Amino acid sequence: MGPIDDHIKKHLDILFVGFNPSLRSGETGYHFANPNNRFWTILHRAGLTDRKLHPSEGEQLVDMGYGLTNIVARPTKAAEDITKEEYEEGKEILKEKIARYEPAFVCFVGKGVYQQYSGRKQVPWGLQEMSVVPGVYDFVAPSSSGLVRIKLDDIVAIYKELSRLLEVYKEKGKEGVEEWK
């Protein structure tokens, strides 16, 4: 079971970054394919997509201005199965990818993903004061895993903040985002 393909192109509005593919994603080749994962429901309820997409439709996100990748490419049963070496290698690859593709926002789907990527211990939800890659805004949202103990409505509220922030960015550009901070 190998890695699954990124859905990415230059200058996306949002690049979503997960920990790594689940075993189900590795089997199907689709991001967020585990039936217990709420990613597609969250995107729809937050107003980022006009309907709930099926994991097999993930490639369509690129046409909507969104992309998908992971900090670690190897599928595992759980994030705890990722090694320190995989995170170290993955964060360097991810930094290069973000610098090359230059999305407006990178949404880290899980606080732990961002902690591994940034090396920061204290990480609030939402827009981060300082980004790792200059010129790209870092946004931290809860994991969409069904194992997360945050109410779905509370998770959706954080993703709605990202949706509103994207609207501000499209209306006012980087100045609008800086005012948001």
TrEMBL record:
<keyword id="KW-0378">Hydrolase</keyword>
<keyword id="KW-0234">DNA repair</keyword>
<dbReference type="GO" id="GO:0004844">
    <property type="term" value="F:uracil DNA N-glycosylase activity"/>
</dbReference>
<dbReference type="GO" id="GO:0006285">
    <property type="term" value="P:base-excision repair, AP site formation"/>
</dbReference>
<dbReference type="Pfam" id="PF03167">
    <property type="entry name" value="UDG"/>
</dbReference>
<feature type="domain" description="Uracil-DNA glycosylase-like">
    <location>
        <begin position="8"/>
        <end position="152"/>
    </location>
</feature>
<dbReference type="InterPro" id="IPR005122">
    <property type="entry name" value="Uracil-DNA_glycosylase-like"/>
</dbReference>
<protein>
    <submittedName>
        <fullName>G:T/U mismatch-specific uracil/thymine DNA-glycosylase</fullName>
    </submittedName>
</protein>
<dbReference type="InterPro" id="IPR036895">
    <property type="entry name" value="Uracil-DNA_glycosylase-like_sf"/>
</dbReference>
<dbReference type="GO" id="GO:0008263">
    <property type="term" value="F:pyrimidine-specific mismatch base pair DNA N-glycosylase activity"/>
</dbReference>
<keyword id="KW-0227">DNA damage</keyword>
<dbReference type="InterPro" id="IPR015637">
    <property type="entry name" value="MUG/TDG"/>
</dbReference>
